[in-house]
Amino acid sequence: MKTITVKYFAMFREHAGLSEETLELDVATAEDVYKQTQHRHGSNEPTGHCKVAINDTMAEWKSDVNDGDVVLLFPPVAGG
Amino acid sequence: MFSISDETIRVDELREQVMNPGSGGVCVFEGWVRNENEGRTVQRLEYEVYAPLAIKEGEIVIAQAKERFPFLAASCVHRSGLLEIGDCAVWVGVSAPHRDEAFKACRYIIDEIKVRLPIWKKEHYVDGDSGWVNCERCANV
């Protein structure tokens, strides 16, 4: 098990009703975090449409997550 | 230089930032809040921005634009918070010795910013409803 802080943004934050939480998760990748927190962010959107960052650096869904990491889950962006 | 602002974008001040004696011109893109999207009448917009990463990624976009289309100065500001119809949501200015680099770099910067930065747009409609743009397939799961 790893201690992971998960941060939710925009639609994910609204659905979760909170902006972040620290969880004990059995995960290897960022995608695992996304799937195991689906009950929070509420999305089954293919991860390709969403983005992820780890410790304030943009990451890939296959990126490894380590104990103590902060994983940021971004719904589809819409700047401009 | 890339920044996020929760206040009205002051276009004249930004224009001065990209003035350069070696530049023959400046290409500017201003993104405005419009009153309609996909058939719905929009009353106002709300931008949520994760600033630490948006600024970092915005600086990368400008650096990549400079590698592709050498220019002398570039600046970009994106709004956060609540905006009304007609407000400036994003400003991009690029000055260069010749117009070709300025046009191309300006286009590159705005295109990349729209798809890469952690910025989300919530539209508030006149009928009282609201919705996150581009998130339709995430909704109601």
The structure class of chain A reads alpha+beta
Give the end-to-end Cα distance of chain B, rounded to a whole number of Å. Answer: 39 Å
Give the integer mean of the pLDDT values of chain A.
94
Give the termini separation of chain A.
Answer: 40 Å
Top-tier CATH class of chain A: Alpha Beta
Main sheet makeup of chain A: 5 strands, mixed
The CATH superfamily of chain A appears as: Beta-grasp domain
Order of helical and strand elements of chain A: EHEHHEEE
- Secondary structure category of chain B: alpha+beta
Say what oligomer this is.
heterodimer
The best one-word shape of chain B is: elongated
Number of strands of chain A: 5
CATH topology of chain B: Aldehyde Oxidoreductase, domain 3
The fold-level CATH name of chain A is: Ubiquitin-like (UB roll)
Listing every helix as H and every strand as E from the N terminus to the C terminus, the arrangement of chain B reads EHEEEHEEEHEE
Spans of chain B of at least 5 consecutive residues whose pLDDT stays below 50 are none
Q: What is the CATH class of chain B?
A: Alpha Beta
- Share of residues in helices of chain A: 10-25%
Short description:
The complex is a heterodimer of chains A (80) and B (141). Chain A has 80 residues and is an alpha+beta fold.
Task: Give short descriptive properties of this protein.
heterodimer; A: alpha+beta; Ubiquitin-like (UB roll); five-stranded mixed sheet; 22% helix; globular; B: 141 residues; alpha+beta; Aldehyde Oxidoreductase, domain 3; four-stranded mixed sheet; 3 helices
Structure description:
The complex is a heterodimer of chains A (80) and B (141). With 80 residues, chain A is an alpha+beta fold. Chain A has a single domain (2-74), classed as Roll (Ubiquitin-like (UB roll)), CATH 3.10.20.30. Chain A is 22% helix and 31% strand. Chain A contains three helices and five strands. Chain A has helices spanning 10-16, 30-36, 38-41, and strands at 2-8, 20-25, 51-54, 57-59, 70-74. A five-stranded mixed sheet of chain A has the order 2-1-5-3-4. In chain A, β3 and β4 (57-59) form a beta hairpin. The model of chain A has no long low-confidence stretch (mean pLDDT 94). Chain B is α+β, with helices and mostly antiparallel strands. In chain B, a hairpin with a 2-residue loop joins β3 and β4. The longest helix of chain B has 18 residues, at 51-68. The model of chain B has no long low-confidence stretch (mean pLDDT 94). The interface between A and B is medium-sized, with 23 and 30 residues.
